[in-house]
Specification:
Layout (H helix, E strand, L loop, with lengths): L16 H8 L4 H17 L9 E5 L5 H9 L8 E3 L6 E6 L5 E6 L7 H13 L4 H20 L2 H4 E6 L12 E3 L6 E3 L3 E4 L2 E4 H10 L3
Parallel strand pairs: 1-2
Antiparallel strand pairs: 1-3, 3-4, 4-5, 6-7, 8-9
Helix pairs in contact: 1-3, 2-3, 2-5, 4-5
């Protein structure tokens, strides 16, 4: 399933792109690619949005597309079934715990029209050197590219392949203890023992910096 930028939906199964835009805060090509990744992965695996950790995603980027993946697939940082390993690649591996199948979805860069010109304008816009006309053209190109990414044939945008990796372990719930330095509660697995005292990571780093460790 995919839909255009205005939210016209082709099939009822998934969260709409407009809902992803509201969640993310703006529409952009990165969000569109994340949306296509998420819907393609769920369709390929034959899964629905999970209640808990039935579906797991490892994202190789921390860019905009991750927000679409969270909203569409239900793989979220809070549940522990979204793991970000920022390798700077627009690639996502999804594991279905129920079926034992896993797929890796890679976004192809070759299918994005006008990429070079848009990148040149992006540098000007974000550095504050773009003229009003250049900034307006950049916004137009972003909108055009987003629409294109939502409608381009899946095979031209994504490479989907099965992988034989095992899924990550289920998320763990840790007991809470009190840092003996600052007195704040902290998960016990995120503490360090410094000078015989159990302290949180920020306090341990501060002690190392001050030479008290």
């Amino acid at each position: 399933m995919c839909e255009n930028h205005e939210g016209a939906r082709h099939g009822p199964a998934y969260t709409t792109f407009d809902e992803c835009v509201r969640f993310h805060g703006h529409s952009c090509p990165g969000l569109a690619t994340g949306y296509r990744v998420a819907t393609a992965a769920m369709r390929t695996l034959g899964v629905m949005r999970p209640y808990d950790e039935e579906l797991v995603c490892i994202a190789e980027t921390d860019a905009c597309g991750v927000d679409a993946v969270q909203l569409v697939t239900g793989c979220t940082a809070g549940k522990g079934n979204l793991i970000i390993r920022d390798y700077g690649k627009h690639a996502f591996t999804f594991f279905s715990r129920e079926t034992g199948r896993a797929v890796r979805v890679l976004v192809r860069n070759s299918g994005m029209p006008g990429r070079s010109a848009m990148d040149d304008l992006r540098r000007k816009v974000f550095s504050g050197t773009a003229t009003p006309d250049e900034a307006a053209r950049f916004r137009e190109m972003m909108t055009e590219t987003t629409r294109s990414l939502l409608s381009v044939p899946e095979g031209d945008l994504l490479e989907i392949r099965d992988v034989s990796e095992n899924p990550p372990e289920n998320a763990r719930i840790f007991a809470s203890v009190v840092c003996e330095e600052c007195g704040e509660p902290v998960a016990d697995a995120r503490t360090r023992v410094i000078g015989g005292r159990r302290v949180c990571i920020p306090c341990s780093l501060a002690q190392e910096k001050s030479g008290r460790a």
